[in-house]
Amino acid sequence: MQKYPENAGFFEYVLLLLGRRKRIRVTGASMLPGLKDGDELFVDPYAYVATHPEEGDIVLAWHPREADLKIIKRVSMVLDNGCWLVGDNPAESTDSSQYGIFAFKRIVGKVTSRS
Amino acid sequence: MKNLIKNFFAVEEVSAHCDGPCGVYDPADARIKAEAVLSMTKKILAMAAPDPSDAAAVVAYNNTMSRYIAIKEDQAHGTKTDILVLWTDFFKPQHLEATPDLHDKIWKATKLCSACKTTVSLESAEALMAAVEDIHNIFWAAKGRDVAYYTAS
Q1: What are phi and psi of B49, to 5 degrees?
Q2: Is B4 on the interface with A (CB under 8 A)?
């Protein structure tokens, strides 16, 4: 069973004020049914500074081919050199099935809650 | 209060798109092929067998008939593939709420493709065109757009 981010509690807003959270808005359908186009989320940009992602995490990653484009995907597998990222809606997702492994340095944040 | 805090900070858009051709679907693909099936079926049925003693006419007849049959089979299979791609890749569970018999419609439409492929039946070819029109209407209704159905021929 996939886990989806829960609504942000007050502490998440405190972290936002402290610069420990960023706001993002989802565009596109690759994370359906849990995350829809237009959903707003909080992201921890420091989540993976000291640790690696875990399987099931919803993460932000730099697109492997397009500069300045961040994508949102789910960690399917954690490997030695990076993660295998997939969309929850594989019919409308371009992910590791096309691009292969995402190096850890390309994964830039963890979704923590819905804002 | 939460909104006040939130709106003080910019929101960044992140992509959950795919950048392949996925997401770009159009039942027109199936319609064009189904039209070719109907056209070939009509042409096959209109062919008059030549005098068996006229060797050149027999060769020409067989050649033309073979080409019509090859195109009909190919386009019927292509129609089936296009419909199945819409079914598996475009239509989502929520579309079944608006069209509860979608699976049955797709199944019958693809069965018609098989019938058009393996037989020479004007009735099946016309029924396939009607099924494709039905899928066109369901598809564009699912996308919330009013796109008129038309045929090229």
Answers
A1: -65, 140
A2: no
pLDDT profile of chain B (153 residues), mean per 10: 80 72 73 93 95 96 94 94 90 89 97 98 98 96 88 79
What are the Cα distances from residue B110, in Å, to A102, B46, B104, B139, B141?
A: 40, 25, 10, 16, 21
The residues with which B59 forms a beta bridge, in sequence order, are none
- Domain boundaries in chain B? 27-48+55-142
Residue B87's identity, in one-letter code, is W
What is B27-48+55-142's CATH number, 3.30.1950.10, 1.20.120.400, 2.40.50.1020, 1.20.58.220? 1.20.120.400
Q: Convert the pLDDT of each residue in A92-107 to its tens digit.
A: 777 777 677 889 999 9
Test mutation, B6, B13, B14, B18, chain A, max A CBs within 10 A: B14
Burial class (CB in 10 A: 0-12, 13-18, 19+), A52: middle
Among B139, B87, B89, B91, which residue's Cα sits nearest to residue B108?
B87
Q: Is A13 on the interface with B (CB under 8 A)?
A: yes
Beta-strand ranges (E) seen in chain B are 11-15
